[in-house]
Amino acid sequence: MTDATHWPTEIQLAEEGQSLVVAFESGESFALPAEYLRVNSPSAEVQGHTAEQRVTVSGKRAVKIRRAEPVGNYAARLIFDDGHDSGFFTWDYLFALGAEQETRWQAYLDELAAKNLHR
């Protein structure tokens, strides 16, 4: 059993892998762009094992999602066309990414600018 508080009712790739649409039991639904998901991957490759190890992923403007695979009853594994496939996106994390999309995206753009990196 899982401690997830947000349960998806639908998960589908849209726009030929350019986004992932996730609908939840609570009625919220989010269209999450592939680039946004890729740069916010929960994998250790991106997040590191500490906050100091977190990587700013750049150059992913054109990335697409090839597949979304279930991981037990608690997450989805997204396979991106750049070969990245190691992050497990839990239902709660997908919900948070949707609910906080505007804030997180702006923080990412600000981080890119501060590091002189490009999408």
Can you walk me through this structure?
With 119 residues, the chain is of the alpha+beta class. The protein has one domain (8-113): 2-Layer Sandwich (NE0471 N-terminal domain-like), CATH 3.30.2020.30. The protein has four helices and six strands. The chain has a three-stranded antiparallel β-sheet with strand order 1-2-3. A three-stranded antiparallel β-sheet has the order 4-5-6. Strand 4 (65-71) and strand 5 (75-80) form a beta hairpin. The longest helix is centred in the last third of the chain and has 14 residues, at 101-114. The protein is globular. The chain starts with 7 loop residues before the first strand and ends in a 5-residue tail after the last helix. The model has no long low-confidence stretch (mean pLDDT 94).
